[in-house]
Amino acid sequence: MELWQESVNILVLGSIYVLIAVGLSMIYGILRVLHVAHAGIYTLGAFLSLSIAGVTGNFWIALTLSAIISGFFGALIYRYIYKFVLKEERIVPLIISVGLFITMQDLYRIIYGPYKYPFSISTAIPYIRVGSFYVSPLQMLILMITGVILVGLYFVLNKTRIGVGLKACANDLQMAEAVGINTKLTIALAFFIGSALAAVAGTLVGVYDNSVYPTMGSTVSYKAFVVVVLGGFGSLKGSVIAGYLLAAAEVLLVSWKGFFLPRDAIGFLVMIIFLIFLPNGLFGKKER
After folding, report:
1. Is 168 helix (H, G, I), strand (E, B) or coil?
2. For 25, 34, 208, 233, which has the most beta carbons within 10 A of its beta carbon?
3. How confident is the model at residue 286, as a pLDDT?
4. CB 67: neighbour CB atoms within 10 A?
């Protein structure tokens, strides 16, 4: 029964990693830019949900509005920042993204103070218990929301013109523009979707941990990077699988064998091992 319980913990933790990394991988797949500020939008989503829920008293309204606002904010980052440096060396947008992330963290600290804010909600989801096996309402909430989002994302990417445009831009941006695809709008949509997913992840973590604070995106910034590397840069399928693999490595190593290093170090160890044997990740292609 302990294995089943650990499986639930893996799915919950992996779902958070997936929600963050899929958006980051989508953006990298098109622009080949490591969008470090993605973690800042993750924090923004949590604070927006906390503030909106405090006003409306409704978690679902808060989650929806937070995702939409964060999505537009992500699109604005592309429109007014990245768009002007895409022709530069890759190190340029990377440095800008790191600076933007640090700036966002400092702004959150100025606005909200260096405090942790509780974020508790009530759900109609029942507590599931069978013997020593249990699934809490918040765990079920995370699994349900992640499942709906992944199914919806699969439909959008494979059954709609938006998905065709995103795939075309990811394969060859110049060729996509040559055949008439509005690449600027498509890239903005990629930022919108990815940022909205990051906001949802930030909200769910804030609720699950009952804590929202300015620097909550610090650890996420490199965990998402690890997942993207493991999955193969730009591979959405790889990011999903790698997210759950990383969660499994962390949960099982810590719960079964203990670990002589901090838990967060496991991700980097797994990444190093993968890069030795699979330099391009699980489903990555050689960089063009």
Report:
1. helix
2. 25
3. 55
4. 25
Q: Residue for token digits 């440095």? A: 95
CATH number of the domain enclosing 6: 1.10.3470
Q: What is the mean pLDDT of the chain?
A: 86
> Which DSSP symbol is given to 134?
E
Residue 129, beta-bridge partner list: 134
Amino acid (one-letter) located at 74: G
Does position 261 have pLDDT exceeding 80, yes or no?
no
The count of other CB atoms within 10 Å of the CB of residue 133 is 14
pLDDT at 288: 47
127 belongs to a structural domain? yes
Residue 154 lies in a domain: yes
pTM: 0.90
Residue type for 225, please? Answer: F
Report DSSP state, residue 215: T
Gap between the Cα atoms of 48 and 267, Å rounded:
29
At 27, list the tokens: 């953006």
Asked, for residue 287, whether it belongs to a domain, the answer is: no
Distances (CA, A) of 209 to 70, 121, 267: 21, 11, 20
**Which alpha helices (H) appear in the chain, and where do they start and end?**
2-31, 38-56, 59-80, 91-112, 137-159, 161-171, 173-178, 183-209, 217-231, 236-252, 265-277
Structural domain count of the chain: 1
Q: Which residue type occupies 216? A: M
Tokens at 222, concatenated: 């490199």
Q: How far apart are CA 277 and CA 125, in angstroms?
A: 43
Given a cut of 90, whether residue 231 has pLDDT beyond it is no
Q: Is residue 122 part of a domain?
A: yes
- Closest residue by Cα to residue 203 from 126, 119, 144, 124: 119
Check if the beta carbon of residue 22 is closer than 8 Å to that of residue 236.
Answer: yes
35 by DSSP, 3-state: which? coil
Domain span at 65? 2-277
